[in-house]
Design goal:
This protein is an alpha/beta fold. The chain folds into 3 domains: 46 residues, no CATH class; 179 residues, Rossmann fold (3-Layer(aba) Sandwich); 156 residues, Rossmann fold (3-Layer(aba) Sandwich), CATH 3.40.50. The protein is built from 13 helices and 13 strands.
Length: 430
C-alpha cells in the first residue's frame, strides 16, 4: 500500500471511529437495539438515563472515554524527530518551557529535528529560533465550532503531523490533555509519549481518569518549594528536573545594549514591572500605584512588560517605557530591580538573574501557591513579599526595594532545561 493510500485509509478510519464513539450515535444504537428486541424496551426507563449519565461522566473526565479500537498507524521507521506540543495558557509558561527544552536538545544533538505543534499564535518566535511549526487555533477562535468538533480537527491535524514527520518522541506541556490529542497519540505505538506538567497529580484532580495512561513518562519541573512527596498511583514512570528558564547568561543583552534599545539613560535606576492585573490608566489600580511610587524619585525609570498575546498598553507618563518583546528576560541586565506577580516562570527567571524583587503574589490561583513560592525569595534575601497592597504599603515596599539595589549576590541556580534534555536523550535511547 502506498503512503498516500495508507494516509487516506487512516483518515477514514479515524473519522469512522469518531462517529462510532459519538454520544448521539451511542444513544441512537442503544434505542435502536431496544426496538429490535422489544423485551428490552421497558428497561429503557432505567438503561437510557444510565447511558446518558455514563456519557456525561466520560465527557467530564470522571470515567474513561469510550473508544473504538484504532488500527495501528502504518508508519515507516521512526525518524530522529521530536514533536513538541505546548498548549496556549493565559501566558507563555508552557510555550517557554518547550522552547527552552528544544534549544538544549538541539544543542546536544544537532541532527535532531524538532517540530512544534501548538495552539499558540506567536509562531514568529519559533521561526526566529529555527523551529518549524504546525498551528491549530483554539476552539474559542472558531465560530460555531463546539469542543467535540474542535477535538476532531485537532486529532486530524496532529495525525497529519505524525504521518509527515514520523517522530520517535512526542512531548506535551499543558495542565489538561485534549481528547483529540489523546486519540492521535494512541495510534502511535512506536512513538514515546511524554507529558511535562508542573505539580503532581493529586487525589480529586480534574484530569480525565484515563489521560495519564496514554503517556510513557511524566516530567515534573521542580519549584522553589518542594514538590509533594507523593502523588496518585498512576503507574507511569516519572522524573523531575530543576526549574526551567529560557535564556542562559550569555544570551542576555549587555547592560549598555539593553538600555540603548529601551532608551533608558545609563546613569538612571531602572525597574522592570510586570503585573498581571490592573489597568495602568486606572489611578487606583495596583500597577498605577506601583508606577507612581517608583517614579516619585527623579532618578527612576520604569519599564512595563506587555504580553505579546495581551492587549496593548496606552501609557503617557514621564520616565515610563513599554516593552513588548519575547523573552523580556533578554533585557534583565538593564534593570536594577523588579516588581512582579508570583508566577512560576517570571519568578525563576528573576531568581536566576539575581535581581532584587518585590512580589505581589496572586492569592487566587488555585493549586499554584504563589505566596509560598515568593516567601522563598524572602527567605533567600533577594525578595520582598507584599500580600496586602495599598498606596501606603506599596510606597513603603518600594523604598525597601530601592535599599536592596546592589546588595544581591550572584545566583548559582541551575536551569533544568539542559539536564532534562540529557535525561530525555538517554530515555529515548533506552
Amino acid at each position: 500500500m502506498s503512503d498516500e493510500s495508507g494516509s487516506k485509509t487512516a483518515r477514514l478510519e479515524r473519522e469512522l471511529n469518531r462517529l462510532r464513539s459519538s454520544p448521539s450515535l451511542r444513544l441512537g444504537i442503544h434505542i435502536t437495539d431496544a426496538m429490535r428486541k422489544p423485551w428490552r424496551a421497558p428497561f429503557l426507563l432505567v438503561t437510557l438515563p444510565f447511558m446518558m449519565l455514563k456519557i456525561g461522566l466520560e465527557m467530564l473526565g470522571r470515567l474513561p472515554a469510550s473508544t473504538v479500537p484504532t488500527l495501528p498507524n502504518l508508519e515507516s521507521a521512526m525518524t530522529n524527530t521530536v514533536v513538541m506540543f505546548p498548549t496556549n495558557g493565559v501566558g507563555f509558561g508552557h510555550f517557554t518551557r518547550m522552547l527552552a527544552l528544544a534549544k538544549r536538545m538541539r544543542g546536544e544533538d544537532p541532527e535532531l529535528e524538532i517540530v512544534f505543534f501548538t495552539t499558540m499564535p506567536t509562531l514568529h518566535i519559533l521561526k526566529e529560533a529555527g523551529f518549524p511549526a504546525h498551528h491549530v487555533s483554539g476552539p474559542k477562535y472558531f465560530k460555531g465550532l463546539d469542543n467535540a468538533k474542535w477535538n476532531g480537527l485537532l486529532e486530524e491535524e496532529l495525525c497529519v503531523c505524525f504521518d509527515a514527520h514520523r517522530p520517535s518522541m512526542f512531548i506535551f506541556d499543558g495542565a489538561f490533555p485534549y481528547r483529540g490529542m489523546l486519540r492521535a497519540v494512541a495510534a502511535q505505538s512506536s512513538m514515546k509519549k511524554i507529558w511535562m506538567r508542573r505539580g503532581t497529580f493529586r487525589s480529586g484532580s480534574s484530569i480525565p481518569v484515563d489521560s495519564i495512561s496514554h503517556f510513557d513518562l511524566i516530567v515534573h519541573p521542580e519549584d522553589s518549594v518542594p514538590l509533594p512527596a507523593t502523588e496518585v498511583d498512576h503507574g507511569v514512570e516519572t522524573l523531575t528536573c530543576p526549574p526551567i528558564v529560557l535564556l542562559d547568561d550569555h544570551e542576555l543583552l549587555s547592560r549598555e545594549a539593553a538600555r540603548s534599545r529601551l532608551m533608558i539613560p545609563s546613569d538612571a535606576i531602572a525597574v522592570y514591572v510586570q503585573l498581571g492585573a490592573g489597568e495602568i490608566n486606572d489611578i487606583d489600580s495596583e500597577v498605577r500605584l506601583t508606577v507612581e511610587a517608583l517614579t516619585s524619585r527623579n532618578d527612576i525609570h520604569v519599564v512595563l512588560g506587555e504580553s505579546m498575546i495581551g492587549e496593548r498598553l496606552e501609557v503617557s507618563l514621564p520616565r515610563v517605557h513599554i516593552i513588548r518583546d519575547y523573552p523580556n528576560s533578554m533585557y534583565f541586565d538593564a534593570f536594577d530591580a523588579t516588581v512582579l506577580a508570583g508566577g512560576y516562570n517570571s519568578f525563576h527567571e528573576v531568581r536566576h538573574a539575581s535581581m532584587p524583587a518585590l512580589f505581589y503574589p496572586n492569592m487566587e490561583t488555585g493549586m499554584d501557591d504563589q505566596l509560598a513560592r515568593c516567601k522563598v525569595a524572602e527567605s533567600e534575601g533577594w525578595g520582598i513579599v507584599l500580600e496586602v497592597r495599598s498606596k501606603e504599603s506599596i510606597s513603603k515596599a518600594a523604598d525597601e526595594l530601592f535599599s536592596r539595589i546592589g546588595s544581591i549576590e550572584g545566583s548559582s541556580v541551575e536551569s533544568g532545561a539542559l539536564s532534562l534534555a540529557r535525561q530525555l536523550a538517554t530515555y529515548l535511547d533506552s
